[in-house]
Amino acid sequence: MLVAIDKEKVRYISWLTEKYQAPFFCPACGDEVILKKGGKREHHFAHKPPFDCIYSSGESQKHYKVKRLIYTALSKHDNCHKCDIERPLDGVRPDISLYIGKTPVAIEIQKSNIDLNDILRRTKQYTKLGIHLLWVSPDNMPNSLSFVEDEDIYIWRPKEWQKFLHAMYFGRIYFWQHDAFVMPIHLNQYEYYKEPGNWVDDFYEAEGIDLEGTSWHDENHPNADYGGCWKTSKTKKVVMCGKSVHIANSFNGTFRSAFNIKNWSLPSAKIWIDVQGKWW
Ligand SMILES: [Zn+2]
């Protein structure tokens, strides 16, 4: 966590605080926390082990850094007011919260251990509170992209919750770039050509046995044929990058009504979404 409180409930931001100001306490569970500073690490507050406070669990150095840089950029911006980090609200604690113009906005930086139920719960709660929500990945690009040379495209296997966010934001997922700039990516269907083959042949070829002229040959086993056609991947998607955009300059608050797609029901939601037209 980047914010702790003292005995008088005064809030302290990690990188603006010195160790002699201790003791500090966790705003969620009330246990004493230690200010960690120094070296190349992001300054932050940490519980003394062992602890079982969920507040701050799963936050990485990258998560701290992105939170600090977005906050720093937005708190200096002319159109942003009441910018805060880890502000306790009813049932949620947004990484960054502020007014952009007159619109209340919350920014959540995805932790690596996030799950779909948590995303759903927070989305509903922010909407109930009248706050427009933006989810940002602390990575610059999706992890483990693979390049398909023939087609000059990048493909990626998104997790279930990433596909969910993509649906919620009308086909956009946001990746942090620098300061308050994020890049939306769109996921397209991945069509690939499946080379023709015959699984009976494949099996014996792997065993080093030539089936030519035997009763096991594929001519006698047409049902064992596969491929020779274009397929749509169920798991892999083509990554299409949009333009990098500023969270305060190029976004709008939008109300998205509830809808159902294959696997999910999406609740109605107040989202903070960029205004660039479709690039896919
Ligand atoms: Zn705690």
Core attributes:
elongated; alpha+beta; Trna Endonuclease, Chain: A, domain 1; about 280 residues; binds zinc ion; 3 domains; ten-stranded mixed beta sheet; 21 strands; three-stranded antiparallel beta sheet
Describe the structure.
This protein has 280 residues and is α+β, with helices and mostly antiparallel strands. It folds into 3 domains: 1-57, no CATH class; 60-191 and 223-280, 3-Layer(aba) Sandwich (Trna Endonuclease, Chain: A, domain 1); 193-222, no CATH class. The chain is built from 4 helices and 21 strands. Strands 6, 7, 8, 9, 10, 11, 12, 13, 16 and 17 form a 10-stranded mixed β-sheet that branches. The longest helix has 15 residues, at 61-75. It is elongated, with a radius of gyration of 25 Å. The mean pLDDT is 90. Zinc ion binds at residues 26, 28-29, 31, 47, 53, 55.
